[in-house]
């Protein structure tokens, strides 16, 4: 099945709009944890709820979201916009047969733009924010490269995907730590704390600080503007955790265990949003290039992803008593 519909117009084929929107970034720190699978199905489920959605492939070293969606290799993608071969980002929008869902393909030459410059990154981000959509779901690359971390931090919603394997868990913690530290570095400028934070983040700092928790506690003890800075960063960095490929009850409990460990050792809030079990149908959907949200919409796997999607949407609703978490990070 090819999900391209040639006669359907892209989500914003008429003009770009300045309307506010939510950007969800799906990261994980390690390849093979199912980021594209989660991002793609979340995008489809959001569009099925009537939201205008743009899936954006930001795995700048190995973009493959178009393949998972059953789309033939696009003629142009992120690299063409970054290198100014395409003037308007809306020209990159690929319509799909799924109503209200469009795709922006990743870079065809990962080596060429694997290390985006600051100006390129901001130009792309601002153009992305002007597109007419309710949600933009970004599928990020693996690892802790600055580009990956920066796009993760720039999103209003930060989703961390992990699988029940030691290497994935270790990389997830490293990804969280590096992301929080990078956020601190950039946010500290506005508070006049850049020099202090830079010193604290050195591996052999004079404060004896070794963990994010120790750093935050030290800042809070300083009081005043410094304590306010620490509290604000904690409030605006609360990623959502998704445990993928679960096989047992202990795998499902991993999410809660990581929540507790992250708070205990890092002093950071990690919100366990849901799990997705391992199933042969997932592999088959990838091999056949048929999104599972379309092929088995009432199955257990999509029911679990729908549960995650509903949890994320509910926490943006003021009636739930939970506040939306907005990132103030600017790379």
Layout of secondary structure:
Elements: E1 22-27, H1 35-48, E2 53-58, H2 65-68, H3 78-82, E3 93-95, E4 101-104, H4 110-113, H5 118-130, E5 135-140, H6 146-154, E6 157-162, H7 166-191, H8 194-200, H9 212-222, H10 224-235, E7 240-246, H11 249-266, E8 271-277, H12 280-287, H13 292-295, H14 300-314
Parallel strand pairs: 1-5, 1-6, 2-4, 2-5, 6-7, 7-8
Antiparallel strand pairs: 3-4
Helix pairs in contact: 1-14, 6-7, 7-10, 9-10
Q: What is the residue-mean pLDDT, rounded to a whole number?
A: 84
Strand arrangement in the largest pleated sheet: 3-4-2-5-1-6-7-8
Structural class: alpha/beta
Portion of residues in beta strands equals 5-15%
Beginning-to-end CA distance, first to last residue: 40 Å
How many extended strands?
Answer: 8
State the helical fraction.
40-55%
The ordered H/E elements are: EHEHHEEHHEHEHHHHEHEHHH
How would you characterize the largest beta sheet? 8 strands, mixed
Count the DSSP helices.
14
Q: Extract low-pLDDT stretches.
A: 1-19, 317-331
Shape: globular
Rg computed from alpha carbons, rounded to a whole number of angstroms: 20 Å
Could you characterize what this model shows?
The protein has 331 residues and is an alpha/beta fold. The chain contains 14 helices and eight strands. The chain has an eight-stranded mixed beta sheet with strand order 3-4-2-5-1-6-7-8, with helices on both faces. Helix 9 (212-222) packs antiparallel against helix 10 (224-235). It is globular. Mean pLDDT is 84; it is low at 1-19 and 317-331.
């Amino acid at each position: 099945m090819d999900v391209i519909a040639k006669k359907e117009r892209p989500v914003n084929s008429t003009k770009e709009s300045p309307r506010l929107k939510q950007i969800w970034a799906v990261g994980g720190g390690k390849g093979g944890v199912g980021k594209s699978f989660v991002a793609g199905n979340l995008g489809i489920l959001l569009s099925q709820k009537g939201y205008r959605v743009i899936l954006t492939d930001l795995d700048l070293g190995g973009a493959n979201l178009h393949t998972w969606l059953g789309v033939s290799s696009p003629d142009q993608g992120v690299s063409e916009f970054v290198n100014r071969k395409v003037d308007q980002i809306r020209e990159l929008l690929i319509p799909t047969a799924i109503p209200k869902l469009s795709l922006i393909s990743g870079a065809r030459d990962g080596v060429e733009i694997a290390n985006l410059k600051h100006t390129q990154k901001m130009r792309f981000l601002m153009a992305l924010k002007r597109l007419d959509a309710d949600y933009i779901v970004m599928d990020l690359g693996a690892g802790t490269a600055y580009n990956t971390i920066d796009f993760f931090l720039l999103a209003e919603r930060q989703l961390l995907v992990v699988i029940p394997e030691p290497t994935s868990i270790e990389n997830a913690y490293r990804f969280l730590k590096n992301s929080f530290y990078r956020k601190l570095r950039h946010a500290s400028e506005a508070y006049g704390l850049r020099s202090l934070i830079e010193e604290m983040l050195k591996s052999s700092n004079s404060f004896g600080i070794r963990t994010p928790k120790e750093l935050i506690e030290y800042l809070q003890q300083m009081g005043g503007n410094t304590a306010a800075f620490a509290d604000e960063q904690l409030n605006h960095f609360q990623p959502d955790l998704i445990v993928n490929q679960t096989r047992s009850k202990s795998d499902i409990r991993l999410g809660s265990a990581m929540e507790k460990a992250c708070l205990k050792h890092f002093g950071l809030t990690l919100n366990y949003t849901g799990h997705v079990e391992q199933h042969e149908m997932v592999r088959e959907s990838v091999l056949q290039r048929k999104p599972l949200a379309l092929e088995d919409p009432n199955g257990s796997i999509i029911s679990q992803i729908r549960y995650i999607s509903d949890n994320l949407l509910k926490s943006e609703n003021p009636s739930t008593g939970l506040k939306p978490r907005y990132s103030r990070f600017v790379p």
